[in-house]
Specification:
The chain is α/β, with parallel strands linked by helices and 380 residues long. Helix content is 53%, strand content 11%. It folds into 2 domains: 237 residues, no CATH class; 113 residues, no CATH class.
Length: 380
């Protein structure tokens, strides 16, 4: 799915990323009053982004589709299923079946693996294991034990119901499935494949950002058709044939910033003249990175003239600001930056990009139209 398979943040986690991509695919299948949910089933720490940790916790997450008064539950597995895995899957489905009216149980596995049958060889043996379990009350097996207690007949009946309504989606090529569904939703055309790619990447990040925020609070993430269409319309409106506007909050969350590595750069030094405060400098450096990303995407989309207009207007505003401040006897670094931030730029639609171009144009590499909050002789 293009740049969605990058190494930034959560999307680099193979198992967990596969979970989110499958959820993303099923969003595009919603109709009517259906609602898609993503929830945490087990006692795990969502705040951890450790690859090994989250990839080993695939069974702790579940996707479900609500249709009228019943549900379809989807267990996603990228890793190969062994006996431990499939027992956990059945446990999850037994718990769900006792909470909701479920008509279908789907196991969705990666295209990489050919997983084996997941059902128990003996219901009696597994029930005995559950009955004898002495795990803590929050453990998955203990939750199943609490429901069935000594009622093997009910346990067997529920297992048989799951088996009868089980659907296995082997070798689920999630990238292809996503493109099949979203190509039409995001107006994919042969003439402008880059536009579709940008929209798809931004929409995925938008959903992922929202989802992680909610499940980080240990709440289920729910999305109905109206909410999904709002996301779609937002992305289509912001990323169009004339302009690209990325969601700043998502960009900021996805972009690591290490000040120690940029302290020798001119952008950092110029900001330090304004205010020698790490929080202040970090905020403005992030604006600069945001504009740099916007600039790259615009140039890739053959919008070079727009970039020229943005940067020409920015430089003219800078010159005007310096002239006014000198006339008023207030020409200091912080005032230069502040005056420029308060200037208009009709070629940009959001403040973060407008602030970002100011920082970008203080770079050492900016030869003809370099901005300076403080003019320094013989800069090194």
């Amino acid at each position: 799915m293009g740049d969605m398979d990058n190494n930034s943040g959560i999307v680099s986690l193979s198992g967990f990323a596969f979970q989110i991509k499958v959820f993303f695919y099923y969003l595009a299948t919603l109709s009517g009053d259906q609602e898609l949910g993503f929830e945490v089933l087990d006692d795990i720490s969502i705040s951890s982004l450790d690859e090994k940790y989250l990839n080993n916790k695939e069974d702790a997450f579940s996707t479900r589709i609500k249709t009228d008064n019943n549900y379809v539950v989807i267990q996603v597995k990228r890793s190969k299923i062994d006996k431990t895995n499939y027992v956990k899957i059945i446990y999850n489905w037994l718990l769900a079946n006792n909470e909701y009216s479920i008509r279908e149980f789907i196991l969705c596995t990666s295209e990489i693996f050919d997983n084996e049958n997941i059902f128990f060889d003996s219901f009696e043996d597994i029930f005995k294991k559950i009955s004898l379990s002495k795990n803590k009350s929050t453990a998955l097996i203990s939750k199943v034990k609490e429901i069935y207690k000594d009622d093997f007949e009910k346990f067997e009946k529920d297992c048989m119901y799951i088996q009868e309504n089980f659907v296995k989606l082997d070798k689920f090529a999630v990238e292809d499935k996503i493109n099949e569904k979203y190509g039409q939703l995001l107006f994919q055309t042969k003439n402008n494949p880059q536009l579709y790619k940008l929209r798809l990447e931004e929409l995925f990040k938008y959903i992922q950002f929202d989802l992680l925020d909610v499940i980080g609070q240990r709440k289920p993430y729910l999305c109905g058709l109206n909410r999904f269409h709002t996301y779609l319309e937002n992305v289509i409106q912001r990323i169009n044939i004339n302009d690209v506007e990325l969601n700043y909050a998502i960009f900021k969350k996805d972009t690591p910033l290490f000040l120690e590595e940029i302290k020798n750069k001119r952008e950092y030094k110029q900001l330090a003249f304004c205010k020698d405060d790490e929080k202040f400098i970090s905020k403005h450096i992030m604006y600069g990175l945001y504009y740099q990303k916007y600039r790259i995407l615009s140039l890739e989309a053959d919008r070079s003239q727009r970039i020229v207009s943005i940067e020409n207007r920015t430089f003219e505003s800078f010159e005007d600001a310096v002239d006014i401040l000198k006339e008023e006897g207030k020409d200091k670094p912080f005032f230069r930056l502040d005056k420029c931030k308060n200037s208009s730029n009709c070629y940009l639609n959001n403040d973060e990009a407008k602030f970002g171009v100011l920082i970008y144009m203080t770079r050492e590499e900016e030869a003809e139209r370099q901005l300076s909050w403080k003019e320094v002789e013989n800069e090194q």
